[in-house]
Amino acid sequence: MTIPGATGSASFGSMYAGRGTHREVVEWLAARIFAGTFAESEVIDLGGVMGELQVSQTVVREAVKVLTAKGLVAARQKRGTVVRPRERWNLLDDDVLRWQLGAGVSEGFYGELHALRCAIEPAAAGLAAGHRTGEDLAALEDALAAMADARGAVPALVEADAAFHTALLAASHNRFFARLHQLIIPGLRQRDLHVHAGAFEDPVPLHAAVVAAVRDGNAEGARRAMNILLERAEQDHARATAADPVLPQ
């Protein structure tokens, strides 16, 4: 069975293991919540959902359990299933972030993502300088080479940048930092697509400076190089936004 409008798929690292109709109902409901079809504080007519999708009460209830666990909805006594305020949604959840990006980022999203990166990535670079292995260095250098080989081809450049920052977080050998790649990278990909759609400076030298400091075991140098890289990233995004005011902040 295929439910119209349930086009998403559970991402790598998805927190729910639903398949088939169950997954499709979760995706269908989530898409409408993020689009505002089911507005904040609105009661979702689950009977109507069952009728529209031609699915059982059990399937809908199980889908609602998934969305409840992710903070999107809540059961209210004498009211039913209610969409929670957006600020209560669990944006640290892989699927919630995927749905957010799929619906279009909200105002301030990229600024908040940049603030998160500034708090995490310089520290991760410093840790990587002290804990990197040969395998970590190979992953960073492979990503750097892919970035150079992309030569302005935006999709390849975006994937190389994602691979670089994933490898850097992993090289910190901090399990919490490493896990954050699933929070940072999807938003970074979206940002890179905007930034690199126009003219941009070669990103390789600033990334290479981070790799050099990590390779040399220079923690302070790695933190400094990453801060410089992030400062340039913010400047690039500001230029892209100024050139196309429709782009989100």
UniProtKB/TrEMBL annotation:
<keyword id="KW-0804">Transcription</keyword>
<dbReference type="InterPro" id="IPR036390">
    <property type="entry name" value="WH_DNA-bd_sf"/>
</dbReference>
<keyword id="KW-0238">DNA-binding</keyword>
<keyword id="KW-0805">Transcription regulation</keyword>
<dbReference type="Pfam" id="PF07729">
    <property type="entry name" value="FCD"/>
</dbReference>
<dbReference type="GO" id="GO:0003677">
    <property type="term" value="F:DNA binding"/>
</dbReference>
<dbReference type="InterPro" id="IPR000524">
    <property type="entry name" value="Tscrpt_reg_HTH_GntR"/>
</dbReference>
<dbReference type="InterPro" id="IPR008920">
    <property type="entry name" value="TF_FadR/GntR_C"/>
</dbReference>
<dbReference type="InterPro" id="IPR036388">
    <property type="entry name" value="WH-like_DNA-bd_sf"/>
</dbReference>
<dbReference type="GO" id="GO:0003700">
    <property type="term" value="F:DNA-binding transcription factor activity"/>
</dbReference>
<protein>
    <submittedName>
        <fullName>FadR family transcriptional regulator</fullName>
    </submittedName>
</protein>
<dbReference type="InterPro" id="IPR011711">
    <property type="entry name" value="GntR_C"/>
</dbReference>
<feature type="domain" description="HTH gntR-type">
    <location>
        <begin position="19"/>
        <end position="86"/>
    </location>
</feature>
<dbReference type="Pfam" id="PF00392">
    <property type="entry name" value="GntR"/>
</dbReference>
